[in-house]
Amino acid sequence: MTYVLFTLSVLLVMGFVGFSSKPSPIYGGLALIVSGVVGCMIILNYGGAYLGLVMFLIYLGGMMVVFGYTAAMAIEEYPETWGSGFEVFGCFLVGLMMEVGLVLWVLEFDEVVVVVSLNDMGNWVVFEGEGLELVRGDSIGAGALYDYGRWLVVVAGWTLFVGVYIVIEITRGN
Amino acid sequence: MTPTYMNIMLAFTISLLGMLIYRSHLMASLLCLEGMMMSLFIMTALMASNAHSPLINIMPIIMLVFAACEAAVGLALLISISNTYGLDHINNLSLLQC
User: Fold this and answer.
1) Can you give the residue range of the structural domain that contains B75?
2) Domain positions in chain A
3) HSE of A147 in the Cβ direction (CA atoms, 13 Å)?
4) What is the ipTM score, two decimals?
5) CB pair distance less than 8 Å for A58 and B64
6) Which of A30, A70, A75, A105 to mutate to test the interface with B (most CBs of B within 10 A)?
7) What are the boundaries of the signal sequence (chain A) (predicted)?
8) Which burial class, exposed, middle or buried, applies to A115 when counting CB atoms under 10 A from its CB (0-12, 13-18, 19+)?
9) For B23-65, how does the pLDDT look when each residue is reduced to its tens digit (9 = 90+)?
């Protein structure tokens, strides 16, 4: 239980290797969804309940659905999975071997020194503070976007509007 | 820092490699781009919770907004390629005509 966060991050890397080894996009989308679920659990373990929910709703529920429909439009008849052919399977296996080697390195030395020193194995215990708290920090911080970040909301909203217009112009063709 | 950060940065690097190396589909590179955005979202969310500073939580939300924009534009380009050629294979693209 001490290493549950490290295990989840290892599973995240394995999911990322799964779609970076480039199978057919529909299977890549599946690996991205699995990675998203694992990433949401990592965020939840650090105490960010609101951001985990945002990830599920908007990222997996919004963007992945759009990617799934687009992949269904531009797919071939026999999509290529991880087990068909040596290229995808070889890339996937190399990625997994690299991650297993890294895990063994970390468990052996308890420390990885690459530019910075990554030590402190084990879980972070989120310090909740004294007394009862009524609001979570992350939802209040994201709500401060509309208070301190008024201009940022205007810029992001205008960007989204222009993005929709660009998409319409691109798909119009000619 | 924990080795969890190392794994998340490694996930970003693996997605970056996957985006830059082409196989047959353009859509697979767009998926790797989404993977990069997801790993950045996770990293900034963890840093916001670690530093106990709520205002940093604005950054993952805004990054999600702009990642959605770029995903939409990338998918629109893919659809226009797919309308011209039927599939989104990379070797259909040439510098003369998209």
Assistant:
1) 3-92
2) 3-109
3) 6
4) 0.91
5) yes
6) A70
7) 1-15
8) exposed
9) 888 899 999 999 999 999 999 999 898 888 889 999 999 999 9
